[in-house]
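Methods, example record. To illustrate the input and output format used throughout this study, we show the complete record for Phospholipid/glycerol acyltransferase domain-containing protein. The sequence lines were provided to the predictor; the line carrying structure tokens was produced by it.
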Amino acid sequence: MSDASLSLRHRIINAAMRTVYFGRIRVLDLSSSPDSQPPKSASSPAEATPASGAGRPAASADSPSAPDGGPARRPRLIIASHRNGAIDGHQVLAAFPHAQFLVSIQLLRHWFLRLFIAGIPVVRPKDVERYGLDPASVASPVEAGLAHLRRGGDLGIFPEASSDWGHRPQPYKSGAARIACALIEDGIDVEVIPVGLFYSTPDRFRSRAEVVRGRAVTIPDRDGREVKEWEAAVASAMGAALDDVSVNCPDETTFAAVEARALDRARRTPGASASYAQSFLELQNEVGSAVPDGDRPTGAGQADGGPTSANVPTTPRTFPVIRWVGFLALWLFAPILVAAAVAGSRADGRNTVTFFRILVGFAAVMVWVPALIIAAFFWPAVIGAGVLSGVLGWLLLGVRRIRP
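The corresponding predicted structure is encoded as:
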């Protein structure tokens, strides 16, 4: 269904950009049931009813048609943590390549940004005034998201609404819950999937980036409640599910310690089983998720806030010489790296450095790569050696033992 999927061009560009910058994005799937078998209803655990509570057979996300002639694909509402600016959408696409997103209209107004950013426009009241838009012509984000899901699409939403590199999520907005409840009221079987995004160092080239897919959210039945009360219960269930797969530490000190220990553990774990995200979640669970201070339990014989195996600070190993060797091997692409580095230095926060680098780096690629292609006709040996050296340097920067 072309109208319910991100275009092939955008999927290819996004995959190339995230792979060049981070390397292969690992997807850690913590869901215990296949897409076509959602969890049982919270109010009736013995009954195999869909998560939506609609009480009708579920359609697989890839099935050609629904049992009752509804959407050809079972719609999925993907709620994701928001850690690293606009680049977060690229990471979610590694796990859900056909997903569409609600995107701020300010990211869609320039032709260059539209080359690699696409989605359903979200127009805030201040955008109407800023861009001189006609309020009557602007559809609400909720209505736009509902229309996409009714067509059987995958819709990605960041409930925090804006990114922040902190120790816990920002307050969640209620839009995702409103969308889910509206679909359920319409009798549409929707699956709500929480997704956590993890970056070992968000602002460094070739650092680790992973996506964690959690278990589908069990949506509470309405049970005669008022709409607002029901939406609040659904929002609470979504928030709890998202917290379980996201960075959610009690404080900054614990976050820094867990961050360092998870990176060290991922470096030391042999083979393909090394996962920074899995290590982070395990260590985070040892100290407990972020909860109000008065509600956080204190272990016997341990003072509140005392040291544990996860919040004792550790310093991760660094390999500056090897990293410099890797960067020097990228000599042929120095103009791109320099342009990206300068752009990153102008970012207004750690959570936007990568986006600035990729934005300007992509522009530099559009100029420098054609120049290299032309140069290859005159100096094929030099250009060939530079390309080979660049590939080796890129691989060296991604070696598991030294990767930041």
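Annotations derived from this record:
The domain at 2-244 is CATH 3.40.1130 (Glycerol-3-phosphate (1)-acyltransferase).
Residues 33-71, 291-313 have pLDDT under 50 and may be disordered.
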